[in-house]
Amino acid sequence: MTPEKAAAAAVPEEKPKLNFGGKTERVATCRLCEEARTWAQKGSFCEYCTGAFRRATGHQRLHILFEDQHLAESVRQESKTKRAEAENASPPKKGLEKKLEEFLRRFEEVLPQQRRIVANEVVEELTANCSDLRLILQRDAAQDTACGLLLEQLGKLRATVPASTNLDVPVITLTQLDSAVTKVPLPQEALTAAGYTLTKHSAAAAAEGPKSQQRKRGRRTKVNSRNKKMVVAQHLRKKRYRVFLEEPELHESMSWSTFHSIMKRHFPHVKNPMRQTDICEHCKHLERHLLPAAQRALAKHRLEIEEFSQQYFHPFDSSPATIENKEKTDKFPLLATSLAFVQQQNFNAANSRERQALGLATRLALHSAEASAIHTLKGHVELLEAYRWHQTSARRQEAALEQLASGESLPASAVLLQMDFKENVRYPLSAQETGDEWHAQNKLSLTVFGVFARVPTRTGTHVDVYLLLVSEVLDHDAQAANMLVNEAIALLRRHPGTHWPAVKKLILASDVGPHFRSYENAVKVLNVEVEVLYLAEHHGKGACDRLFAWTRMWVSRFIQKHPIYNLRDLTQCYREGAASRIADDPTTPAILVSNFDPGRFRPTKRSFLSAATLKISRTYSLVALDRHAAPGVRIVNHVFTDLRQGSRVLPCHVDEVVSEEKVEWRRGYYDKPRSWEQAGPEPGDVNHVTRRFAAQKTFLPDREVAPKRSLEEKMSAKAKQLSKHAAKKKRELAEGSSSSASSSSSSSSTSSEKA
């Protein structure tokens, strides 16, 4: 739309009349599509243009239509399409004709019976005298059919109810009953007349199907919502309130509450700053340093080469592969292909006509720029390839573990054990901690070892079991890990829900910590085939971390009613938490909690795998056959779990070392009295508090001071604190407004001086 045409259309053009539904009304012209609209409609646009604009942009101001010509044209085309569809649609049928047609459409299965009844001579005679008889007969036949369908649906619903249920659990929910009734072709008015009231909300809920009987907790999920979509969250570098204070245009034009509501409604994907912990160091270097440095190097060398040949990268940029790589979020293919293109151009320099047309000095300078670019970019690409291989390895091992944990690739005679050490639990812990308790937490802690297992059962399936082993031993080395794994296997053997005689293969999954991936840990003495699956460096997340998250929640709840002062208290906390978890969600696997006490001294005998051809830090998958399958030690290195073919590790043998001295396990040590475990003073006791009182009781205050603050004093202190915060906010807003005003006045004075 031209500016002159838009200005002419800005004033609504009044036409004599236009018939809408048989009425003569004043009309106007839509500013966008220039079609007639009702005069009573609000705004300057017709209903079709307004609806198309709302669907395209949401609740935005309409003035942006004329600022974006592409948007205005798309809205205009969609409005014309909707208007044409509305004009070509058949007019709605009204009254009894519409109801009768809908009624006959629903009950076509009863029409043959109705025709036979109506064809009877008596019915023909009655029809001549009673014009409504046909409609009455059709309604009665339809109701009889609907009653039969209703009984059929209720019978199916009754068959789904178990024979015996708990008395406090309803056997049939209202949604299930409504779902059975809505499948019967009866209008809602007929149901209401029969005494069965079904609201629109209940009918919609019944149409969605049965829902889980598990009690919902927390806020409603937004993942499966039809009114929302998944977007990438953007995290600010400052909190939203700090951004509001530092931007004068914001706090001058609106209040904080208005800004907060706008952010929440229109920018929900913009979040406050977030802190990530326990992330992969290699992935962080790749995303934050290596990849940006390679992109900067590529841009720099492109400019240097284009100084001597402006059309140098034109064939590369215009190729479909390059255009596709530029649209990808992964920028490595673009870097690799750019390096390959420069190498190819440099190799074919003698056959290039464009290069031969340049002067000798220019060709030498271009060759030097190409050599510099190849040398620099080759180092970047090789380094990026190594770090990308690390990410690929992590994804391969995680996919293999996920298939095993889900049961897709886990054999029926195999057991999966995924294990990990939790961060040591510091103690003492309580709802009210003293200074001594807080200082003791730096010296006293407990080890928690978690295991997720999928074990065969007597029915030929697998059952999931969680294990928590709590110990005072703080050593996280290969010897301690082997002993903890043996203890976990012993617990699984005794568990009534497992069938250990059916186990023919043991799969151990863990991270690549030195306590798991070591030559000492690779030695196994079980009479089964053993496969070891190592996850990639810094990527050892799995079911054990889910278990550890539960334990943190259990500890925070437990200390509200009972302190944690020792190993026994922490074990009790975990057992109560596991019981409450299973009670809340019966689908939770069994959680076994046990103490682990290896004694005071370490075992004197230690075994190590000796293999000159095996570099254990270069592999993620090892398979060892049991000692009855082949004589000696037989280990196959698959490198990755998804590779079925591996190489035999030869030569290899087991070395045993026996220590003459006994070495104690490392445990927490606290050299001061544990005041939190001691009983309080008894009447008549003398301690430092009573002695201090005896020495100072003659020095009375000027006025009476209560030992503790009263409720009124606490409320007064809180009110004073809130008033200070409010005054601080007002002061910051005033300072921001004054600084913006001074900057605007200085800029205006500078412009006037220049004028």
UniProtKB/TrEMBL annotation:
Output compositional bias ranges, type Basic and acidic residues. Answer: 704-716
Low complexity bias: where?
Answer: 737-755
Q: What are the coiled-coil residue ranges?
A: none
Compositionally biased intervals (Basic residues): 213-225, 721-731
Region (Disordered) residue ranges read: 202-225, 704-755
State the protein's name: Uncharacterized protein
